[in-house]
Amino acid sequence: MSTPTPRHGPGNQPADGPPAPFGAPKRQRGGARGLLIGAGAAVGVLTLAIAGLALLGQGEDNAPKKTTSGTASSPLKATDAQVAACEAAARASVSEDAEPDASTIPECEALNSDQRQAVVAKIAQDLFAQSTADTDSGDSSKVYKFGQTVTFEDGSTLVAGPPVKFTPDQYAAGGEKFKYHVKFKVTFTNKTSEVFDPTLTTGSVTSGEREGDSVYQDGLDAPDNKILPGKRITWWMGYGVDNPNDVQLTVSMGFLDYEDAIFTA
Fold first, then answer.
1. Is the distance from CB of 183 to CB of 161 less than 8 angstroms?
2. Long-range contact set of residues 256-259: C-beta below 8 Å, sequence gap at least 24
3. Pairing with 69, which of 7, 109, 127, 211 sits 20 to 30 Å away (CA)?
4. Distance, CA of 253 to CA of 257 (rounded, Å)
5. Average pLDDT over residues 29-46
6. How far apart are CA 17 and CA 154, in angstroms?
7. How many CB atoms neighbour CB 21 within 10 A?
8. Three-class SS of residue 45?
9. What is the C-alpha to C-alpha distance for residues 52 and 55, in angstroms, rounded to an integer?
10. How much helix, strand and coil, in percent to the nearest 5, is found in the chain?
11. How confident is the model at residue 26 (pLDDT cuts 50, 70, 90)?
12. Mean pLDDT, to the nearest integer, of 138-162?
C-alpha cells in the first residue's frame, strides 16, 4: 500500500515555495515579524540617543557662565589672600557718598557671589560698630592742659593760657553774681591756605560744681576779623567763677569749623 503524498496547496507545491534541497537550512516562518521587531529596537535605541543628547545640552546650559565683569559664577572659592585684597580695596572705596560694593572692584573679581556678599557684610558691620562707638563716646572734644598747643587736622593751632585773676571795670556786663573773676589768653594760628572767619567763636567755663558766667568789657571778647593764611590772632576771654583754682575752659573756634578744645589745670 503506497503512502499518499501530502497536499501543500495548488499544484501540489508547498505554500512557502518549492521544497529546499537536502541539507539546506530550513526557511523560518514569520520573517516579517522579525523585521518589525528589529525596526522597533532600532527606534528605541534612536530614542535613547536623542534623550541623551538632550540631557547633555541641558547640562551645558546649566554650566557656569561668565558674567559681564569677566568672572565665572562658580562655586569655587577664592584664596584668603584674594579675599583680603578685595576687602582692603572695598574699604578704601567707602566714603560718605558711597557704600561698600564689591561687584565693581577689580580686586574682587576672583571671588564668587557668596564671598563678595560676605566681604560687604563684614565691612558694613564694622562701619556700624564704629559709628555706634562714636555715638556712645559722645562729644568728640579732646582735653588739654593750659598752655598746651592744640593742632587741628588742617594744621592750624590753638592754645589757651592758665586763668588770670582780674577785676571787671565799671562798665562790664556779666559775672556779677560770682565772687571771683578770671580771664584766659587764647591764640589761634591759621596754617591753611584759605582765609578763616572766626565769627561765632565761643567759650565757656566750669568752676567748682557749676558753670561760670561770661564777662563782657573792653578787651574781653572773641575775635571778629578774618584771619589770613599763616597769620595768628590773640584775644582774652573773661568769666565769673566760684573757684579760680578749679576751672575748665572750653573753646569752640568758628561755627562748627573745628572740634571743641577743653583746657584744664
1. no
2. 257/196, 258/152, 258/156, 258/158, 259/140, 259/141, 259/142, 259/152
3. 127
4. 6
5. 46
6. 118
7. 6
8. helix
9. 5
10. 30, 25, 50
11. very low
12. 87
Q: Could you tell me the three cell numbers for 170?
A: 565799671
Rounded to whole angstroms, the Cα distance separating 153 from 140 reads 13
Residue where the block lists cell 573756634: 253
pLDDT of residue 184: 96
The span from the CA of 30 to the CA of 20, in Å, is 17
Spell out the domain ranges in the chain: 80-136, 142-264
Res 75: pLDDT:
59
Count of alpha carbons within 13 Å of 5, Cβ hemisphere only? 6
Q: What is the DSSP track for 230-265?
A: T-EEEEEEEEEES-TTSEEEEEE-TTTTS--EEEE-
* pLDDT, tens digit (0-9, with 9 covering 90-100), for 43-100: 454 455 454 444 444 544 455 544 444 444 445 678 888 888 888 888 887 765 566 7
Cell of 97: 557718598
CATH-assigned architecture of domain 142-264? Sandwich (2.60)
Calculated CA dihedral for residues 225, 230, 234, 235, nearest 10 degrees: 30
Distance of CA 161 to the CA centre of its chain: 44
Interatomic CA distance for residues 27 and 46, integer angstroms: 30
